[in-house]
Amino acid sequence: MCGRIVQKSGPLDYVERIFPNPRRLFADPAGPRYNIPPGTRPLTMHHLAGDFEVDRQWWTWRPSGSKYPMNCARLDKILGNKWPWKMLTGHGRILVPADGWYEWKPLTDEPKPPKQPYFIHEADGEPLYFAALSNWRPGAEKNAAHGFAIVTNDAAGGMIDVHDRRPVALPPDLAIQRMDPEFPTAQALALLEHGLPETAFTWHPVRQEVGNSKYQMPNAIEPITVPSTDAPAF
């Protein structure tokens, strides 16, 4: 996972898939985002303050005493109860709704090859729910010290990208369970091994402009034609 996600749907679109009859309206003045990098505030869903909330939290977490901000949390480290994730598994469970994410595939075997970006999304076009861990608490600043990291499974296979990893996207029913603060921590951890399989996704090449996170046009996710001589082998 190279760290770019898409949230083109509105908050209510994400909520309605897991709560078919929501009793609240969720508005977001920021509107759709087609190229969200770490170090910004994507939409998140959680019960961190008790009630169910949809808000924007800081994507990256820098644990106290660490020099390095983290935007991804490896599943094997989480399941192994390793630092720093063991501090968040009991009370920092959140979801990051998304319509997909980007990955880049090298086009040649050169040392610094050109790369082709791809947009990966759910095969039926439904929203995805990425498991994440947050250090935010009510009243805290939404910054790197109180940010979140998206859970990635480095053993799942990376589909088209060069990495053997991808975000853990949970089916709606499991996403609801994991987000519930009353759901036992051990069982919530076990749910992370039941992310959507590779067959749930599809992908296509997109324009090179998505390499710049400032590119937020709707056509960022539209498929393009890659010349056959340059197309990567699957």
Quick gist of this model?
By secondary structure, this protein is an alpha+beta fold. The protein has helices spanning 11-18, 75-79, 172-179, 185-191; strands at residues 5-7, 33-36, 43-46, 53-56, 72-74, 93-98, 100-106, 115-122, 128-134, 148-153, 166-167, 201-205.
- The proportion of strand residues reads 25-35%
Distance between the termini: 17 Å
Q: Helical amount among residues, as a percent range?
A: 10-25%
Please give the count of helices.
Answer: 4
> What's the alpha carbon Rg, rounded to whole Å?
17 Å
Structural class of the helix and strand makeup?
alpha+beta
The low-pLDDT segments are 229-234
Instruction: Indicate the mean pLDDT.
Output: 90
Strand count, sense and closure of the main sheet? 7 strands, mixed
Strand segment count: 12
Order of helices and strands: EHEEEEHEEEEEEHHE
The backbone outline, from C-alpha atoms, is: globular
Descriptive report:
It is a single chain. With 234 residues, the chain is an alpha+beta fold. Helices cover 12% and strands 25% of the residues. The chain has 4 helices and 12 strands, in the order E-H-E-E-E-E-H-E-E-E-E-E-E-H-H-E. It has helices at residues 11-18, 75-79, 172-179, 185-191; strands spanning 5-7, 33-36, 43-46, 53-56, 72-74, 93-98, 100-106, 115-122, 128-134, 148-153, 166-167, 201-205. The strands form 2 sheets. Strands 3, 4, 5, 6, 9, 10 and 11 form a 7-stranded mixed β-sheet that branches. Strand 7 (100-106) and strand 8 (115-122) form a beta hairpin. Helix 3 packs antiparallel against helix 4. The longest helix is centred in the first third of the chain and has 8 residues, at 11-18. It is globular, with a radius of gyration of 17 Å.
